[in-house]
Design goal:
With about 90 residues, the protein is an all-alpha fold. It has one domain. About 60% of the residues lie in helices and about 0% in strands. The N and C termini lie far apart (about 35 Å). The mean pLDDT is about 80.
Length: about 90
């Protein structure tokens, strides 16, 4: 991976929603490896969970449906080695 591509990936990893319009765009980016796609989607899922919790606590935030879209994209990438299933809470616990 080139130095620029590495910097671009690191920037995207900090805030996937800023670099990709939807989780599907992560899947459609053919320059990314499966591992990179999974990492981006995992970060996006964590961000979406935090927004959902904040909104429930009355702090405002993003749309709940983003979490669903991220989870669908993660399913399309496939499970990681040793993954046993998804957790049930918004916090991922």
């Amino acid at each position: 991976m080139g130095q620029r591509a590495s910097r671009d990936f690191e920037a995207a990893l900090q805030n996937p929603a800023k670099c990709f319009e939807t989780p599907q765009h992560v899947l459609d980016d053919h320059k990314l490896t499966v591992t990179q796609k999974r990492k981006l989607l995992e970060q996006w899922e964590q961000d979406a969970r935090q927004l959902a919790v904040a909104e429930e606590e009355g702090m405002g935030g993003g749309e709940e449906s983003m979490l669903h879209r991220v989870k669908r994209a993660m399913e399309a990438v496939g499970p990681t080695r040793g993954e046993h299933g998804a957790s049930g809470s918004k916090q991922g616990n």
